[in-house]
Queue: 2 jobs
Job 1
Amino acid sequence: MILHIKPIGFTLCMGVSFLMPTHGFAVSKLPVQSVQQSGKCTGIILDEQGEPIIGATVQVKGTSNGAVTDLDGRFSLSNIPPGSIIVISYIGMDTKEVKWDGQEIKVTLKEEQHALNELIVTGYGGQQKRATLTTAISKMDNKVLDAAAFSNVGSALQGSVTGLQVVNSSGQPGTAPSITLRGGASITGSAPALIIVDGVERTLSEINPSDIESIEVLKDAASTAIYGARANGGVILVTTKRAQAGTSSINYRLKVGANFKRDDYKFMNARNYLYYNR
């Protein structure tokens, strides 16, 4: 609020009155509109060890105003109204939100906690936790297999693993599909995936789907370190279920299907064939 002060007064001269400034004062109140000032937001982003995080994304929530931390983990944002919410995110770290009150921001990001204790059968070293796994491996557990409707294990892999090609080469009932990985290129032109069941080479048609605990698909060249050239087309590791002491269970699974041969097609005679090729 601004106080506007103006002196006023009254003077009498030769019978005529005039309004002239004197030592009196009148005070009037003028409304003033409040304007919120925008400022510059600066800060530093650190990890749990106190090291600066390079490339962290810093953005004002609900806007496109953002920045990326530099080599020292620092950032700077302009035209930020006080009270704005600053969102800090980085790959592998928990996203954090901070309210900016005009002061420099110092934020420590923590690592994301995921379920990385799942055991993966690698074929070269037994089992590893997914957190320490450095090779390209895809896994399917028995829950996924039980939910799928398929006549053989090879059909269950179709569309479930990236880069794995499952082709039904024959329409004969019970025929196992052809499984290849990484294009199936080799010297002989044929490189089917190597099937290993509990450490022994077998075919998927010999396995009862209900006995499977998990299926791991080894995709990269690291599998050739133990399986050699046979692993050129990829390796599929099948682990079967094991009995547990003190527990007994009886499982019954019935699948009924029918396959019928279509009626013979009507063949063209010589005249129809010539007319068709014209």
Job 2
Amino acid sequence: MPEKKSMLHSFKLTMKQAEPVQELQHGRVSAAELVQAVHEMLSSAGINLDIEKQSLMQTTLTLQEQLKESQAALLLEQEKCDIAAKEADTAKAAWSCRVCLNNEVDVTLIPCGHVLCRRCSAAVSRYCAILFLTGAI
């Protein structure tokens, strides 16, 4: 029984020593630290964890952490993609004819500066179609 008590005491000291490291990492524990803690807890209970299982546990934890990081990076990239798509739509709309909203603009009217496609410009050759449609003329 004294052996178990000293093992538990040893485990408590080890965990107390690890606390400052965890605090520096904002509550995060590395895979190696977690595997070591599990190994120490199981050893103190008289259960041996073989090297292969320790290695598998550490690999699993590392892969889970990498998965979380990859998912966060993917989410960030998806948000960037959405923003870029919206900007592309806005840019495309800026080059669309303001009358038919179909063709690209290729005529600028003077003196008002409105832009139209050649087809819509030819249809309303005397007046600016936009000023006419809005009732400004």
